[in-house]
Design brief:
- Helix content is about 40%, strand content about 30%.
- The protein is an alpha+beta fold.
- The strands form two sheets. It has a six-stranded antiparallel barrel.
- Helix 2 packs antiparallel against helix 4 and helix 3 packs antiparallel against helix 4.
- The longest helix has about 50 residues.
Length: about 300
């Protein structure tokens, strides 16, 4: 009797195994997020820095300040230089007023001599001298105007150059203000307040932990069942059979194959070449970077 029961039990297990050939998942991988490292854009002492690992922050939030003293002093110096240039600009009307008055008087004399010569009351040489004097004064006036205009243009250009330098310094001043590039979570912090930082030094790393994705690897056989925008099921694996299901969307498929990463399991472990895919999910706070996950493709 016991033998019969044993045979029936074994048969039942074999039937159950045969009826459950379909795998629970089609691929596995790890969860990742878009990470951004914020670098110092200016050199100087870190006067303020309110970043802590694990902080949640919005985009365009100022979290630190690099010493701006020297840049501000240079801007003040250039502002004073511009005022000097502006004060050196010639007053054209005042400087040519005398010559204009002399020219007007000479033109009046020329007209008077024209009338006298016409009436025969004065020799023509006097008219010639008056006309020559008018021409000389006209040339003097033109030369003065040209010289004054050239001087004014030169000072204007020098003033414009100062404006460009001020704009460059103001851009440097703006870059002293450390601003978060996007909404996310501070993943790593590399410096502390009071440290001297050089331009290009990493300050902190931020990641978008609300919009995460899983990088999984599939075989060429599986690839024919996957396309961009496809909805799939993603399972965050907590171990000991504990899982949490998420709706996922395929957002990227590699255009070239690669050798199977040693840490990745695929549907066909004998496959030498696989394709990487990214599956985006909306994180509810339970999925962590580097966590193991599984994918079920909805065929």
């Amino acid at each position: 009797m016991r033998t019969d029961n044993y045979i029936l039990a074994v048969a039942a297990l074999m039937l159950a195994a045969c009826g459950n050939n379909e795998k629970e998942y089609d691929a596995t991988g790890t969860f990742e997020t878009t990470e951004t490292t914020v670098f110092a854009e200016q050199s100087g002492r870190l006067m303020a820095f309110s970043v802590n690992e694990g902080d949640e922050t919005d985009a365009s939030v100022e979290v630190g300040l690099i010493d701006t003293t020297q840049i501000w002093l240079k801007i003040q110096q250039l502002d004073a230089t511009k005022k000097v240039y502006n004060s050196q600009k010639p007053d054209m009307e005042a400087q040519i007023a005398t010559t204009q008055q002399q020219l007007l008087k000479a033109q009046q004399e020329e007209q008077r001599y024209k009338e006298l010569v016409t009436d025969g009351a004065a020799p023509s040489k006097m008219l010639d001298d008056a006309s020559s004097n008018v021409k000389v004064l006209q040339k003097q006036l033109a030369a003065q105007q040209s010289a004054l205009a050239t001087s004014t243009r030169s000072l204007d250009k020098q003033s414009d150059m100062v404006d460009v330098q001020v704009r460059q310094l103001r851009d440097q001043l703006r870059k002293c203000h450390i601003v978060t590039p996007a909404k996310g979570t501070v993943l790593e912090k590399y410096v502390e307040r009071g440290e001297f930082v050089a331009a290009g030094k990493p300050l902190f790393k931020i990641g978008d932990t609300q919009n995460m994705y899983m990088r999984a690897y599939v075989t060429s056989v599986q690839l024919q069942h996957i396309k961009l925008g496809q909805k799939v099921k993603v399972f965050a694996d907590y171990g000991d059979g504990q899982k949490k299901e998420y709706d996922g969307t395929v957002t990227w498929i590699s255009s070239r194959s690669e050798f199977t990463p040693k840490t990745i399991l695929t549907d066909d472990e004998r496959a030498d070449l696989v394709y990487a895919v990214k599956i985006a999910i909306k994180n509810d706070g339970y999925v962590k970077i580097g966590m193991y996950g599984k994918v079920k493709i909805n065929n």
